[in-house]
Amino acid sequence: MHQTLPALYQSFGKRHDSLIPILQGIQNKLKYIPKEAISIIANELSMYESDIYGVITFYTQFRLSPVGQHIIKVCKGTACHVGGAETVGEAVSEMLQISKNETSRGNKFTLEYVACLGCCSLAPVMMIDDKVYAHLTKEKIKKILEEY
Amino acid sequence: MGNREIVVLMGTCGKSAGADRVYDKFASALKAKSIAGVELKQSGCAGLCYSEVNVRTFRDGKEYLYAQITEDDVEKFIDSEIIENKTYMEKILFEADPVDDTALFPKQKRIVLRNCGKITPTSVDDYIAKDGYKAILKALTMPPEKVVQEIKDSGLRGRGGAGFPTGLKWELTRKNPAPEGRYFICNADEGDPGAFMDRSVLEGDPHSVIEGMLIGAYAIGANHGYIYVRAEYPLAVKHCLKAIEDAKARGFLGENIMGSGFSFDLKTKEGAGAFVCGEETALIASIEGKRGMPSLRPPYPAEKGVFGKSTVINNVETLANIPWIILNGGSKYSETGYEKSRGTKVFALAGKIKKGGLVEVPMGTTLREVIYDIGGGMAEPEYKFKAVQLGGPSGGCIPERLLDLPVDYESLVKTGAIMGSGGMVIMDERSCMVDLARYFLNFTQNESCGKCTFCRLGTKRMLEILERICKGQGTMDDLTLLQEIAKKCSTSSLCALGGSAPNPVLTTLKYFYDEYVEHIVNKRCPAKYCKKLLTYTINDKCIGCTACARKCPVKAISGEKKTRHFIDQQKCIKCGACVATCKFNAIDTE
Ligand SMILES: Cc1cc2nc3c(=O)[nH]c(=O)nc-3n(C[C@H](O)[C@H](O)[C@H](O)COP(=O)(O)O)c2cc1C
Ligand code: SF4
Ligand code: SF4
Ligand code: FES
Ligand code: FES
Hints:
The complex is a heterodimer of chains A (148) and B (590). Chain A is of the alpha+beta class. Chain A has seven helices and four strands; from the N terminus they run H-H-H-H-E-H-H-E-E-E-H. In chain A, helix 1 (4-12) runs antiparallel to helix 2 (19-30). Chain B is α/β, with parallel strands linked by helices. In chain B, helix 10 packs across helix 13 and helix 17 (433-447) runs antiparallel to helix 21 (503-511).
């Protein structure tokens, strides 16, 4: 983090409107925002820590605790709901023995839900890291998870 | 063979269907067969999600579009298309005259999607070859007022939801004195679940959006701009960044553009996963690095926008229309359309429809034409059409009998739904309308920023009522209460999130009242969706595999191995686990 931050300040500047890009930069690297980062940023940007917490907790993207190697985002959008997203979520939960926002044993996967991935016509879908998997069925999910 | 092209359509959709693998296979196969003179290209998508992976070729002045290409097709494809100069009949979708999109897409008119699936989105030269950046060059020779007038003449209205006339928005902003300069923002937050046209345009034709912004910025006198794009769209973000870089290198962005004296500096901002940030004042707060809470208008962004400066915010689809309008003229654009809705609209078809994907139709086309003639009707025709959900969480459900309605802003509002961003989710008789209302309330309740009481708590109360009804614990009084809260929520919310959150409830109550009554009075879910209202029994398909009995959390299922099992209705808690477990369709629900 101590290497990441200066680069981020350099790209975005030490301004209040750089807060979100800076947080995004940290999360891109570490997949979450560590507590100590918040006080460092508060200092550098001359902001209150509480305001930074306010921003972090407002946006669903930000996480305050570490996650697994891969992040699974199961879509809970309308088309996916109509197409059986509930079963997808349940299947992933069952196979990995985790619920929403939990990390599987061995620290491999973290399960999250998102509102829509924009691949609605291929519902139900989920994303693992940056890759979208479509037309999911229980069998397909099993095969996909085994690939990781 | 000469200069042949093989274009693989590689939007996010295409990639998830395996377009990367198909592309790689083409590359290796061409090499293995030592075929030269064939250019292998990547493109965005043509919106034909149902037939991914798509591949496009051109031969003897004609365009050929192939569907459902897999790695196994590649060799045969090359043999036929490239070596024998013959159509690869097994997977041909359409063949058409390349100048004429109407042959490829009957009943459609492609303005916004004009380049999607045709050009390589990461190549500025490809865009320029399709008359790209000609419109800004033309605009720069016109006085800004004339540019605004052209957009006013086109009748274009904002495609982000509210349908505010774009030309008028620009004019009002221009008229505001802005000694400190202005901003021009592209709203690419696309938060409505069920809509994906903005993603597709940014992935497939990012320069058209940048050019639209440039024209707008010139017209209103803005020198700074942002594209605010959802973080859930990594490929769109990537293509935007590349397009900005290339446009800069060619002198279309930056200082003194094309020697005109006009400067425009453009950056991207990634959203951070809050639906309400699509609302313009919340979006502004988010760009400024704050919590994305909407604020009271007036002042409108035109007066006081980003960093307190005069700002225009337009949607991606709105902006993609702009270069076309400048090149072809506002009056030409307004030739298409219906009453006060001019031009075309892109719809995203999803749900239980045969040909899901993006379609662009003239305003005034009927819903039936969109769903049946273009969309091919129901995905599984044995199940009847029930409703189309239009406009996402702010929209509503439209029943069969209203399908002959023309799509235009005013007609749709009369139904209680809205045009919104143009997401259409088609449902058949297996979807429960009470559950759908519950689904949307859950969404809005989650996404409410919490500022307004009725949006924060009203949605919560409505959600609780709907959950009760779905479990068979509702009363008829609940329906009155629902309507009452809905009315208050729509009138006492600051922004349209709360203001329109009741729409899904109100439209389902209006068109599917009987279904609510059925849940409440007869404790039945006609769509057989609400688990708690079903009775589970085992039929004679049961082979006695014991899988369900092991799964049942309350041990309600009994029976010997290899003999038919039974469910003790007294014990059953209606969790549905047995249905999901049984591989033999032996569990009936009623
Ligand atoms: C809760 C809420 C979410 C919105 N989400 C979006 C969105 O994702 N994209 C969008 O373009 N407009 C969205 N809007 C509408 C914007 O506030 C704004 O009207 C629009 O971007 C203006 O652009 P236009 O005139 O080109 O339509 C949303 C509005 C509300 C109230
Ligand atoms: S209506 Fe809802 S989302 Fe909009 S400002 Fe009020 S509480 Fe926030
Ligand atoms: S619905 Fe649930 S409780 Fe009832 S029999 Fe099936 S598994 Fe058991
Ligand atoms: S609803 Fe799931 S991708 Fe849009
Ligand atoms: S084909 Fe691109 S949106 Fe699906």
